[in-house]
Amino acid sequence: MRIAQVAPLYESVPPKYYGGTERVVSYLTEELVRQGHEVTLFASGDSETNARLVAGCPRSLRLDEHCNNQLTHHLVMLERVFARAADFDIIHFHLDYMHFPLSRREPITQVTTLHGRLDIPDLVPLYGEFRDMPLISISNRQRKPLAWANWQATIHHGLPADNYRFRAQPGSYLAFLGRISPEKRVDRAIEIATQVGMPLKIAAKIDPVDKDYFDRAIAPMLSNPLVEFVGEIGEQEKDEFLGNAYGLLFPIDWPEPFGLVMIEAMACGTPVIAYRGGAVPEIMEHGRTGFVVEALEHAVEAVRRVPQLSRKRCREVFEKRFTATRMASDYVHVFKRLISRNQEKMSEAA
Questions:
Q1: Is the N or the C terminus of the chain less surrounded, counting Cβ atoms within 10 Å?
Q2: In this structure, how many other beta carbons lie within 10 angstroms of the beta carbon of residue 336?
Q3: pLDDT, tens digit, for every residue of 92-103?
């Protein structure tokens, strides 16, 4: 198949540091190429890929200090995508709804994977207007606020099986990996570590919008002698960071659409202690890959129960459910179905 992948421009594909959506786009793109498909990736110019790269801007917008309007670059990229639409059997968008007015008016086969939260009232009239747009969810829980939308499938994220090395022996510290923000609740992670008396390493990105929250609510907690703030780390460092941990803390306080770090930890064999929310119960296997908890005291008890879990089983669950090979195969199945359906419509119209 001739497939176009259209990524956001905020981060490179793959991202240099934090960036869940762009990382998944990279995994999917590379696996599709490996499986023999002809893939064109529309992304920032500093992206690295085995697909044909069409740059939407010279470098990722978050790292470009000269960029003051990120929307303009996305509109330029979309114009380039639609100018070449006839070159592709299917166009796969990862831009939320930005392309919907154009997609509706062009005779193309296309689908959009939604990567973010959908429980926002303003989204209801938008997706109501564009009910014809075919969508893919990254978890069944993600789609619940818009259950009536034009869902084609739920496809869980996957990782290349060799990106993370299995480690049979647990480390001596708890890990928090992600972003510093009120909904990610690193404060909970610090409290859990404090109550169990175990070191906590925090590898996290701080967005400008969350800088005040960090300074006000989190920075004072970093004086705790058990806490080490590592800062933002890249893909190469995550393998060591997660693999050498005793357990990953995922103490969220929002409807998480997926939670990529949970399967990254599983790939290393590291159990996860996660608060129930969003897709967590869908991704986690309670009592097998970690524990799903609902309160601080439950999280503290779960950390103490980690020795009951098998790190080997965590890796086995990852290999069965969350590889990039499985993810790409699921997408190819949907792509073929949409292409066939569109061809039938065109034949009937003729």
A1: C
A2: 13
A3: 999 999 999 999
